[in-house]
Design the sequence.
């Protein structure tokens, strides 16, 4: 039967204002839903904010940004660790259509400069303690340092964030924002040495964070942790996930075992999100059996698996459900959850089930979707998928080949329909939640006169997930030792990028045509850090 | 600073296929996530379907619809009660962009005809037992009866739904569908006698149903009920809510106390959604204390409050959390949940807190948003809000005045931030989950010679929520009694529209200008049905 002209569209009459799905609404809705409930507790900042107070502060930030001349589509970069101000600025940007561009403060000044240039940052917020690091970068760039976030007692010529937003109106800013508008640019490293700017829409960040309650067992009665870095997509989505359901979040600058236990005992923390090494660190404390951990009920971990033996001890000690969450900046997390009921049932790096708003499939190199049991590249679809890479059409096209987002991770679905990670397709190491290009590390180390040839691989490590590890054939006659090379690397690379170990070897495994077989090396040395611990 | 040309849009390169948020994906994602898990159990149909089997069947239906010539934007009407075929057809339509148009089978033939005409239905599915009712309607219309759904043993010249989809391909149909495309037309009555066609986009039905897990405590481990009618938005959203998280749903044709208890005892039902009267009916059973209700943990009720005394008994007997869910077709449910932790804390018709994806505010007649404590119209925003009313610009404009959707319900937020329903703004009665226009009932009854003047109001009733109740000044010399008038009404109106009681009165409360004060009547007679029960 014939299609009526315009049947689908001519009937749509509601305004965008009514029916949109944009990030800033998460803060406003939580404030309207539960104005007097505690949204954030920041023990180190000695501050507690209700959802209403937080939203009013967010609105003040929004008006301050507008007063500084920032408009929808402009980019606001931030170089800072966790703070209430970070979150305030984030939602202030989302509410005004300003594109929030967090920069990892641990990367080198050169890389910060690159990300400022590449994102065409219009304005910058920076922690006061990091101001000296960014000052030389902004001096010769057309970037306005809007404010410093006071977390230390560093003097700077720039007013503090609190001063800048003080006195602004707490009313909702009126800005037209659409679901598909750009909300965030987040940088992530690829196989080449330059990080890529991941473009995330309001729809992507909203539907990604809705996965937290739908698939991560988070409810309105939870008190959640925020000890992972907010400049990373994982912690940022967890905070939004909590706000969707009006759960409270305890914000700390970073993980600190004493602080975490204090939050559990004194603030009844129920739902935590941390790295395996952090849970391990707590388990290793002599006082852990004497602490009152009864409030804790759900412990999400990420970036790396926890061995079943340790896990069993953790479940018993914390008397909580454990679950592994996965995701990546390009497919706004969480994309899969390895649910508590499956933990201990399997061995290895299981990622579990797809979250509510996410499709996961396995694809071969020709773009054919594979059946259960077959190993291939893990590919994603879903409203939480990025728009593309900023100013990088080639990488974007490659990432979206065959109509799916290509993760660069290899895996398969097992007989129970659970996703298992097998390997990384490309030369990327996931170190401390950040992508590290092995090519970048290798080219840096090759500049050292004692290095003749080398291979950099990621090896399982309880703190880093994968530890950057360099196997080096030393140059003939060179008198440098491995420690000299590590030191050299740490001068030229960020902490998470630097090799955690440098090993001298006589030869590297190669193919007949002379290509280094990194996969063989990684497999052979899989227990490298495990053995060191046992020693 | 100047806005770069096209900053927001030119970077978007992912395809719609990758990042869409459309209804049919809910079925596909659940099948990919948990292929072997039970999606639906239909005890009366003696059938169980895994998520994979269901999705394959949905795809077969999609291909069958396409083979019949239906295209994206065409309207598929369905006149039927709950069945696996209803759900199969629903998702089959969603996957092909065909607009699903469920029609309440209890309304009069004339009204069914009106909805078929008004929606310009291209094709129809009908329960075999209802075929005789629709046959005369389709005879003189250009509507193709695609299939009958076999739920009885009624003969019809039309092939069965199962036959029609049998042999079709179980593969995913390839149809381009966008978030904002029309997914459903659902009819709801307004103050005038003709029902209005509510236009719901894929985004609206998806974000509405995501509210079920985010705010209705539904998880992947639940087994949920489906005893409320699927042609109504409430049950339809609950089924999608369950599928988002791969929870199992037990589908019954309608509520049947023995069947429900069987589902709890034999199928470990954990999460139910029913009317207060249904829970009350169960409570009143002599065998209820001897039944094993231990699986049940969360009981959602809707349409009307449950008195605290009954509620206390229900919570104890079922040993479960109770919560009230609200919503309406125009703001795809659930829009608010009166959570378990608040039950028994308050008295009266509380609707509780806004769900995750919904804004709720209180507005006065001039469009000003009111403060806490002030009574006004309940208005909504959110991605779950409808697009408008089909072919009714005037009603659409009125509904979206001042940039919010106007519910027609009056209420306020109390000191704890909880929404309390106060009154209906317009002459609409919500009877058994359906809107009833008092004007329609009044004009029907006025045709009866014994009726001189009357007022029809809604009065609290445990089965109907609000019972349609007629207060009639009899015509002088008429010898008909109230029972004659009730009978006359039920011949001309659907069951839910007919007065549950007709009372003869000598006069009606009126204003000085002679307008009947229905509000006063409703308030004065609030205990009308309560008193009857006590008698």
Sequence:
């Amino acid at each position: 039967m014939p299609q009526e002209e315009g049947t689908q569209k001519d009937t749509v009459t509601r305004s965008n204002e009514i029916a949109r799905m944009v990030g800033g609404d998460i803060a406003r809705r939580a404030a309207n839903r539960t104005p007097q409930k505690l949204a954030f507790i920041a023990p180190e900042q000695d501050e507690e904010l209700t959802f209403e107070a937080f939203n009013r502060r967010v609105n003040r930030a929004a008006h301050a940004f507008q007063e500084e001349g920032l408009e929808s589509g402009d980019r606001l970069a931030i170089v800072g660790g966790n703070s209430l101000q970070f979150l305030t600025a984030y939602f202030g940007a989302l509410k005004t259509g300003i594109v929030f561009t967090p920069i990892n403060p641990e990367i080198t000044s050169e890389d910060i400069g690159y990300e400022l240039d590449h994102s065409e940052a219009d304005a910058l917020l920076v922690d006061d303690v990091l101001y000296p690091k960014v000052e030389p970068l902004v001096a010769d760039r057309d970037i306005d340092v809007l404010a410093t976030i006071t977390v230390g007692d560093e003097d700077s010529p720039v007013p503090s964030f609190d001063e800048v937003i003080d006195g602004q109106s707490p009313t909702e800013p009126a800005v037209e924002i659409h679901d598909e508008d750009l909300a965030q640019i987040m940088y992530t490293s690829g196989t080449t040495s330059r990080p890529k700017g991941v473009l995330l829409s309001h729809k992507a960040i909203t539907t990604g964070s809705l996965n937290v309650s739908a698939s991560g067992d988070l409810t309105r009665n939870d008190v959640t942790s925020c000890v992972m870095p907010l400049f990373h997509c994982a912690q940022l989505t967890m905070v939004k996930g909590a706000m969707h359901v009006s759960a409270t979040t305890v914000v700390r600058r970073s993980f600190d075992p004493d602080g975490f236990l204090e939050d559990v005992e004194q603030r009844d923390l129920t739902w935590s999100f941390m790295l395996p090494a952090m849970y391990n660190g707590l388990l290793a404390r002599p006082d852990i059996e004497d602490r009152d951990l009864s409030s804790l009920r759900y412990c999400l971990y990420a970036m790396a698996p926890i061995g079943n033996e340790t896990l069993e001890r953790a479940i018993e000690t914390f008397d909580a459900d454990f679950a592994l969450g996965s995701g990546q900046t390009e497919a706004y997390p969480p994309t899969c959850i390895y649910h508590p009921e499956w933990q201990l049932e399997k061995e290895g790096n299981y990622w579990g089930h797809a979250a509510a708003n996410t499709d996961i499939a396995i694809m071969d190199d020709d773009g054919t979707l594979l059946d259960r049991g077959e190993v291939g590249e893990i590919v994603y679809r879903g409203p939480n998928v990025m728009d593309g890479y900023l100013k990088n059409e080639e990488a974007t096209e490659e990432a979206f080949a065959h109509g799916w987002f290509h993760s660069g991770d290899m895996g398969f679905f097992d007989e129970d329909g659970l996703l298992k990670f097998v390997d990384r397709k490309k030369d990327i190491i996931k170190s401390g939640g950040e992508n590290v290009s092995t090519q970048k590390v290798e080219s840096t180390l090759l500049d050292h006169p004692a290095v003749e040839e080398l291979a950099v691989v990621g090896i399982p490590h309880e703190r880093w997930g994968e530890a950057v590890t360099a196997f080096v054939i030393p140059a003939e006659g060179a008198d440098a030792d491995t420690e000299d090379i590590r030191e050299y690397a740490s001068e030229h690379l960020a902490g998470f990028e630097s090799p955690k170990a440098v090993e001298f070897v006589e030869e590297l495994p190669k193919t007949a045509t002379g290509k280094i077989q990194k996969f063989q090396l990684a497999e052979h040395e899989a227990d490298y850090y495990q053995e060191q611990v046992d020693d």
User: Anything to note?
Assistant: The domain at 428-532 of chain A is CATH 3.30.300.30 (GMP Synthetase; Chain A, domain 3). The longest strand of chain A covers residues 451-461. Residues 1-12 of chain A have pLDDT under 50 and may be disordered. Residues 459 and 523 of chain A are 8 Å apart (CA to CA).
